[in-house]
Every structure is written in structure tokens, then in C-alpha cells.
Specification:
Radius of gyration: 32 Å
Shape: elongated
Subcellular location: Endoplasmic reticulum membrane
Membrane topology: Single-pass membrane protein
Oligomer: single chain
InterPro entries: TMX_domain-containing (IPR052454)
Largest sheet: none
Distance between the termini: 96 Å
Organism: Diaphorina citri
Number of helices: 3
Transmembrane segments: 78-98
Order of helices and strands: HHH
Length: 124
């Protein structure tokens, strides 16, 4: 990182190689990464959130298997059911929000009794 610009080091992960990359200023030859890939960008914050969430879910899976003795298929079943329930609740919430923003139009009911057309020339 220099002057708020990030450059990605793709060389060897050995200490000496990285130090020589810095000391020889080889980083100056690299193009700065786009701002949306910056660690402080909104996009990367969202990616970071999902990575943390995956770690939490993995810990929950291990806890269910190790502490509670639930088999792996049982843990996956629980996660599947919770995912379906959360999806259903979010779907209902989305429908509610859309109905508040764009309320449904009034439905005009047609009369169940329809007037019969009289045949021409016949009077009652």
C-alpha cells in the first residue's frame, strides 16, 4: 500500500523474496488494483462478511457433531430447514414491502346476474 493505492504481490512467499521485492522497489512496476478490489471497499466488505459467516456456520456444524453427537447428515438437514425457513420469511417480508410500496389495485366484482338480451321483435 502506497498513497492509498494497493498493489498485489504474486511472487514467492519466502521472506527473502518478499523483502527484496520491497527493497528493490519492484512493486512500482505493478499496476494498482481497481478501487472496488480495495480492502476498504464496500464490495470487499461484503465478501469479508460472507467469509466470516461461512466460518461461523462451520463452527456450528462442528459443535453439533462433536458436542451433541448429531451425524453430519443431521446437521446438514438442520441447516437446510433453517435456510428454507429464512428464505420463506424473507420472501414474505419482501411481498409485504412491495405491497406497501405498490398496493394492489382494487378488484371490481362482476355481478353474478347477467342481463339476457332480448331477441329482436319479441316483447314481453
Amino acid at each position: 500500500v502506497t498513497n492509498g493505492e494497493f498493489r498485489q504481490y504474486r511472487g514467492s512467499r519466502e521472506k527473502e523474496a518478499f523483502i527484496s521485492f520491497i527493497e528493490d522497489k519492484l512493486w512500482e512496476k505493478l499496476e494498482a488494483i481497481p478501487s472496488w478490489k480495495s480492502p476498504s471497499s464496500t464490495f470487499m466488505s461484503i465478501i469479508s462478511f460472507f467469509f466470516k459467516l461461512s466460518q461461523i456456520l462451520r463452527k456450528m456444524h462442528n459443535k453439533m457433531m462433536e458436542d451433541y453427537g448429531i451425524p453430519a447428515w443431521g446437521s446438514y438437514t438442520i441447516f437446510a430447514m433453517v435456510t428454507i425457513m429464512i428464505g420463506a420469511l424473507l420472501g414474505l417480508l419482501l411481498v409485504f414491502i412491495i405491497d406497501q410500496i405498490y398496493p394492489p389495485s382494487a378488484v371490481v366484482k362482476k355481478s353474478s346476474v347477467t342481463k339476457k338480451k332480448k331477441a329482436p321483435g319479441i316483447y314481453h
